[in-house]
Design goal:
The structure holds two protein chains of two kinds. Chain A is mainly β. Helix content of chain A is 0%, strand content 43%. Chain A contains no helices and eleven strands. The relative contact order of chain A is 0.35. In chain B, strands 2, 4, 5, 6, 9, 10 and 11 form a seven-stranded mixed sheet that branches. In chain B, strands 1-3-8-7 form a four-stranded antiparallel sheet, with no helix packed on it. In chain B, strand 5 and strand 6 form a beta hairpin. The radius of gyration of chain B is 13 Å and the shape is globular. The relative contact order of chain B is 0.33. Classes of the chains: A mainly beta, B mainly beta. Chains A and B meet through strand 6 and strand 10 of A and strand 4, strand 5 and strand 10 of B.
């Protein structure tokens, strides 16, 4: 069974401080990992995925297969980063596409 | 392109009734997935449709069903509603292909009284 754990329900940081949103996963094969973000009154949208290895809005995430983690990081938090963040996993292989989500972490950036 | 649209946006039903929710994917997207979002369980996968065929189903009772039409529009149906079915139901679409992003709709807020 696949599972995604986000240990923090709420994370509050001051503007300009570093941010790290934790995500751990359980999956027997080679997963695809994603971070989704939901800003207030907006729909859920993809922030980044591990296979693209991009930095989006200053955020990065590295897949650590040894620790089964995919933590989201940003060196300097901005007020506009305040949102709900979801870590998600998709099993590898062709065919069906199913995302397993963590319960989410609400990031609050204090001015 | 227009985004994923879902109708209705809000719905109130009573226990025992049934409900049908609709999703129109982004033009050209043939894969449509449904998710249930609740405060307690978070986002949970319901099912995925591709070319009118259900390819995958989550761990939900048979009261939850869906279908997809030839134009890729999808509906999900919940019969014999229970209080615990109150949730935000999200639809997402994607193009076929391993790297294609899944785009989410705004959701339908279902309240069961």
């Amino acid at each position: 069974a696949q599972r995604v754990t986000q240990p923090e329900k709420l994370l509050s940081v001051f503007k300009g401080a570093p941010v790290e949103l934790k995500c751990n996963y359980s999956y027997s094969g080679s997963p695809e990992l994603f971070w989704y973000v939901q800003y207030s009154r907006q729909r859920l949208q993809l922030l980044l995925r591990h296979i693209s290895r991009e930095s989006i809005k200053g955020f990065t995430a590295d897949l650590n297969k040894g620790e089964t983690s995919f933590h989201l990081k940003k060196p300097f938090a901005q007020e506009e980063d305040s949102a709900m963040y979801y870590c998600a996993l998709s099993g590898s292989g062709a065919g069906s596409y199913q995302l397993t989500f963590g319960k989410g972490t609400k990031l609050s950036v204090i001015p | 392109k227009a985004g994923v649209t879902q109708t209705p946006r809000y719905l109130i039903k009573t226990r025992g009734q049934q409900v049908t929710l609709s999703c129109s994917p982004i033009s050209g997207h043939r894969s449509v997935s449904w998710y249930q979002q609740t405060p307690g369980q978070g986002l949970q996968f319901l099912f995925e449709y591709f070319s009118e065929t259900q390819r995958n189903k989550g761990n939900f009772p048979g009261r939850f069903s869906g279908r997809q039409f030839s134009n890729s529009r999808s509906e999900m149906n919940v019969s014999t509603l229970e209080l615990g079915d109150s949730a935000l139901y999200l639809c997402a679409s994607r193009e076929q292909g391993a790297d294609n992003e899944q785009f989410f709709g705004p959701g339908t807020r279902l309240t069961v009284l």
